[in-house]
Write a structure and sequence with these properties.
Layout (H helix, E strand, L loop, with lengths): L1 H36 L7 H28 L2 H15 L20 H30 L13 H23 L2 H29 L18 H26 L6 H18 L4 H25 L6 H25 L7 H26 L5 H11 L4 H6 L2 H21 L7 H14 L7 H22 L2 E7 L2 E11 L5 E9 L2 E7 L17 H8 L8 E5 L15 E6 L2 H8 L6 H5 L4 E4 L2 H6 L6 E6 L14 H10 E10 L7 H11 L3 E7 L11 E7 L2 H9 L6 E2 L22
Parallel strand pairs: 5-6, 5-8, 6-7, 8-9
Antiparallel strand pairs: 1-2, 2-3, 3-4, 9-11, 10-11, 10-12
Length: about 750
């Protein structure tokens, strides 16, 4: 008896260990390969979302494969086919990008990215994606005393995913380079394949027939259409919400796996909890918590956004996401079918996950000019709360009429009242009061979702109106908007000006008066570091060749002189369209008519330029508030100086609310024996549109930048030295060490 007990425990460890290993490999590969791909596409958060669509699509194909072979083939044939696929997959190792991989510059790179992923990691990822349903299905046939309900093994799978995700930014990324990560992943993949074959051997030794595990006919009835549709929706909404939230938060700090994994970690944690024995007790608490937390979330995130620290704002959104996915996945776990339908259940879940990713990646960017899929899925999650059937049958019209009237009233007010903003405070307070009423409707999902949707719709409309948005559009690289604002000029008069925003971060501004329209503003102002640099070298820069990485509104070009030649590098064609449109900004049309504009990633574009071309190279590339990490590596700095003349200057814009980028550049300057100066500029007087900004200048020879350090124009200082971090390379970056 003791031997039998040990054997059964060994079975659990074998099958759970296989699932754990598989999930760990899957969720290390995601940030690992996303990081490899980022340099090719300017560090855009859309790279991560597109990668997620690929992973979800291949996961669905893996689950479909597992469903088909486990329901249509004999167990011996299943093992033979799966062993053959495993052997073929080793042809894709070691992991690497295809040779001569270059993204398109004249079209959306989404499909190029998907094809590149397929070629690079398609086969190994497919094998990994088949593991969860197939191994659980095999476990249901090995005769273990828990084989009748193998769903608890799903917790082992998601625990592996969770540990892998958390270990990546805090253990793997800070200590192991990308090349080593790829080697270790290949070793782990070999271990996984060995474990899968061991599970197959145990299945062949202990297999039970389908007849031996049949339950009553009632238990084995096929799930009805309503049940399967609800499975689909309960998996689709969290998947879409995951990507919506990821896009929403990752544009404001940095497009790196560190932030991308936060929503995904919460998403996986929900699966660990709901497929455990705790779900029955926790689910009612989650349902109640969602309705309680909804009130402050809607108030502070949409109706009246508070001036919170970013970490508090992040926690607010992540908690709301946690309660939403816990309710959806909790309902999904309660509806899990008999083991006979296990692979169909997982197939529906993976199909819904794929649909959610495709909606966010392929549909939303083409039908929305902002990240509106995020609030839409918040409403959809509320609609999927328990008692939906009862809520649908009970006075459905009475539930949605108040919300419909609220929207109609809002539309009428929006179009009929000329000075709607005069009533801004009244509208906001009214919406806050209405938000409190959502708690009363917590047991009626339709009414709750309808009222919440109406409040969010009206709040977003009012805030759009208050921001005076002239133009807003969305590209692969983010949401761009042009806004019209009012300032008080030097004579204390009101004056209109235009601003360019990427996400929530200002990327430029221009005053509209003809006499003022060529004055560079914000981070590029004449009193600031850039103005000081051009002023100090005014006598010697007549014939300079200047390169600028990152276009923005084009303000820097107004430092140009007729004999100079400027080349502007910009990865997003939409930014170029906006900067060239005189309805929004006229810097380019007034100051840079002869400038060359090159579309594409800066490093790829600069690599094609002749060596020793530039006298001045200005690095001003930002994705919202962050500099793409591949532009900050040692290899990138070497490339810049290869393209600069021996006495050329590299100027680097490092203004950032969250990351201390001066640490990275200081270490590069020290290691490469370069001279560098830093200015953390703060305007002394309250001058319109002159903002605090940080710039670094670097040169081969200290004498080249000495005029700046001895001038009276600004406070240029030597760079501080840092000894607490390794230099960033294309193989190694660590964002944790530079967090402010």
């Amino acid at each position: 008896m003791s031997f039998q007990s040990d054997r059964r425990l060994a079975l659990i460890f074998l099958f759970a260990g296989t699932l754990f290993t598989s999930a760990s490999l899957m969720f290390v590969l995601q940030p690992l390969f996303g990081k490899i791909l980022l340099p090719l596409l300017g560090g855009s958060p859309a790279v991560w979302n597109t990668c997620m669509v690929f992973y979800q699509s291949l996961l669905f194909l893996g689950y479909l494969y597992a469903h088909l072979i486990s329901t249509r083939l004999a167990q011996r044939r299943q093992i033979q086919i799966h062993a053959a696929i495993i052997l073929i997959s080793f042809l894709a190792l070691p992991l690497a990008l295809p040779e001569n991989t270059v993204p398109p510059t004249d079209s959306n790179p989404t499909f190029w990215l998907l094809w590149t992923l397929f070629l690079a990691i398609g086969l190994p990822f497919f094998v990994v994606s088949t593991t969860a349903p197939l191994i659980q299905k095999w476990f249901a046939h090995v005769g273990h005393h828990t084989s009748h309900d193998p769903y608890y093994l799903y917790a082992a799978s998601n625990t592996g995913s969770l540990i892998a995700l958390l270990s990546y930014p805090f253990l793997l990324e800070p200590s192991i380079g990308l090349n080593q990560q790829r080697v270790y992943w290949g070793i782990g993949y070999g271990l996984l394949c060995t474990l899968i074959l061991a599970c197959a051997w145990m299945l062949s030794k202990n297999a039970q027939t389908d007849d031996a595990i049949q339950e009553s006919s009632e238990q084995n009835d096929n799930p009805d259409i309503y049940t399967q549709l609800r499975w689909l929706l309960l998996a689709f909404v969290p998947s879409s919400l995951l990507l919506g939230l990821t896009n929403f938060i990752s544009t404001d700090i940095a497009s790196v796996p560190l932030l991308w994994i936060i929503p995904l970690t919460v998403y996986l944690l929900s699966f660990v909890i709901v497929f455990s024995q705790w779900n029955n007790k926790l689910h009612p608490l989650m349902v109640m918590s969602q309705s309680v937390f909804l009130v402050p979330f809607i108030v502070y995130a949409f109706v009246n956004p508070a001036d919170l620290p970013y970490w508090a704002y992040l926690i607010l959104h992540v908690l709301a996401f946690f309660f939403a996915v816990m309710v959806c996945h909790g309902e999904l776990a309660k509806m899990r079918p008999h083991t006979r339908h296990l692979t169909r259940f997982y197939l529906m879940m993976s199909f819904a996950g794929m649909l959610g990713g495709m909606f966010n990646t392929f549909v939303a960017p083409f039908i929305f000019n902002g990240i509106y899929e995020y609030p839409i899925m918040i409403v959809a999650a509320l609609l999927l709360r328990p008692d939906l059937k009862q809520s649908l049958h009970k006075h459905l019209l009475l539930q949605i009429i108040p919300s419909t009237l609220l929207i109609v009233i809002g539309i009428v007010l929006y179009h009929s009242i000329q000075n709607l903003l005069d009533y801004f405070d009244v509208i906001v307070i009214s919406l806050m009061v209405l938000t409190c009423l959502t708690f009363v409707l917590r047991s009626r999902p339709v009414a709750l979702a309808a009222l919440t949707g109406a409040i969010m719709f009206l709040a977003l409309s009012v805030h759009d109106l208050s921001s005076h948005t002239l133009y807003q559009a969305r590209s692969f690289f983010g949401v761009l908007s042009v806004r019209e604002s009012v300032l008080t000029d030097e004579q204390n008069n009101s004056e209109l000006y235009h601003e360019l925003f990427h996400g929530t971060t200002k990327h430029g501004a221009q005053r509209l008066a003809t006499s003022l329209s060529t004055i560079p503003l914000t981070y590029y102002s004449r009193p600031g570091p850039m103005g000081q640099l051009f002023s100090e070298y005014d006598q010697s820069n007549q014939n300079w060749t200047i390169g600028v990485v990152g276009l923005g509104a084009g303000a820097l070009t107004c430092y140009g002189k007729p004999e100079q030649h400027w080349t502007l590098y910009e990865i997003d064609p939409l930014v170029i369209d906006i900067a060239k449109n005189p309805k929004y900004f006229s810097y380019l049309s007034q100051c840079a008519r002869s400038a060359t504009i090159t579309v594409g990633d800066a490093r790829l574009s600069l690599a094609k330029e002749p060596d020793n071309k530039f006298d001045l190279l200005v690095m001003d590339a930002f994705s919202s508030d962050s500099v793409p990490t591949h532009l900050l590596t040692e290899e990138a700095i070497k490339l810049y100086f290869k393209k600069l003349k021996p006495n050329g200057i590299l100027a680097f814009h490092i203004t950032n609310r969250h990351l201390s980028l001066k640490k990275v550049l200081s270490i590069h300057a020290e290691n490469l024996h370069l001279a560098s100066l830093l200015q953390e500029f703060k305007p002394e007087h309250d001058i319109p549109l002159i903002v605090a900004t940080d710039w670094i200048v670097i040169a081969n020879d200290p004498k080249v930048i000495e005029p700046l350090s001895v001038s009276q124009l600004g406070n240029w200082q030597k760079m501080p030295l840092y000894f607490d971090m390794k230099p960033w390379t294309d193989d190694f970056t660590n964002v944790v060490n530079i967090w402010k």
